Amino acid sequence: MGTPPFSMKSFPRLPRLASLFVVAFLAAHAAFDPVSWKLGGLRGVVVGPASDQHPFQSEGTTVKLKDDTLLHAFNLRFGEKDMSNWHPHYARTVIAKVLSRDSGKTWSEPEVMFESNTGINASHPAIRRLPNGELGATYQRINTKPVEQWDRQNWIRSVLNADKIFRYSGDDGKTWSKEIPISPSTGYWTSAHDRLLVLSNGRLLQPLHSNLDFAAGRSDRVATKVARSDDQGRTWQLSAGWLEVTDLAPNYIGNYKSNFHEVAIAERADNSVFMLGRTSAGRLYGSESRDRGETWTKPAPSALLSPESPANLARLPGSDDLLVIWNSQCITNLNTHLGQRLTLASAVSSDGGHSWHDYREIITIPPNETNISRSFGTDRVCYPSIFFDEGLTYIGYWAAARVNGVQYDQQYMMVLPVSFFTALRDTHRPEIFTSTP
Known about the structure:
Layout lengths: L15 H15 L3 H6 L5 E4 L7 E9 L5 E8 L15 E8 L10 E4 L6 E9 L5 E10 L14 E11 L10 E2 L7 E2 L6 E2 L5 E8 L9 E9 L7 E2 L19 E2 L1 E7 L5 E6 L4 E7 L10 E6 L6 E4 L6 E6 L15 E7 L7 E8 L15 E3 L4 E3 L2 E12 L2 E12 L20
Parallel strand pairs: 13-15
Antiparallel strand pairs: 1-27, 2-3, 3-4, 4-5, 6-7, 7-8, 8-9, 10-12, 11-12, 12-13, 13-14, 16-17, 17-18, 18-19, 20-21, 21-22, 22-23, 24-26, 25-26, 26-27
């Protein structure tokens, strides 16, 4: 995003000590993060930095390789000469990976991991260790019309179709199988990133959502199904019926007529499966399955307020508790998306998602500088991924900011102890201070 306003040629020959100060200064400048600076500080490190060629990085997933290397994969999108009408849904996109061999302290430079074999866009990855020891990966392919037919005002009219596919690797990611379809090949099918679930009996579940009026060029009705595989991802079946939420927030001014998508799922201690999804009702809605993902209850309101933004869900290691990470604040019906994405927070449920406690704000950023009524704004934190390993939680997330007229959308990785999410249980006792002496 431009070059530094100096180079080493700017400095005359200097004594050794002074040269070391110059090197330190340049290193500090190279590490400058405009997004973190604009937002008042962020947790973790940038693993997908924005650049002129790749202005938009987001939505990742993490897995551990057999040699203990951590692999984080995420969307890496290409820019255009004219970014004024650029849209991520029809941008050229690949799935990049970065590696860490020191428990997430440092990460390699991004390199391409997956590209679509049918179009220009591969995105929204999820990678898991399968019961047979292989790696399994899912991602979306968006196939666009020829560029001269793109509708820059309505992205969905620029798309021919989108589908979700699965691939597997028997050599820990060195090579991958051909793309195996999960969803139908017609229509618009996708999911949020990091949503592939491996159940305790070995079944794989992959939530999917679809634009129900895609053929009419509209994206105002979105509903969910769940795909399942009992053969390590080689074949897939879809759940029957749509999971749909027609409830809207009071005086809603957005575009959705019904909205239940980008759902997250987790297996409970009793082997049932719990789901939380994004809606236009001002809160997350939940559903559950008692037959390992084949049928689901009608989505119902949860206690978790939320703008039109997805949560991620996981089971805490060594526990029956569920963990949710989501955009928890800034809910307002004066915004078409019911608020900005300003807070990433966590909560814990000890009853399978019926109630939530241990609320903690992980990151909170300032509101956008202008009065935002028709978008999330240029500044945001959102779309967390969750991976547990050896007492640590690896949370990938997307943070963005506009700095000096330039938009930066970057992928980050923070590492928190698993104990972070319940740390206040035995250390914070405000009730003893409720009365004055």
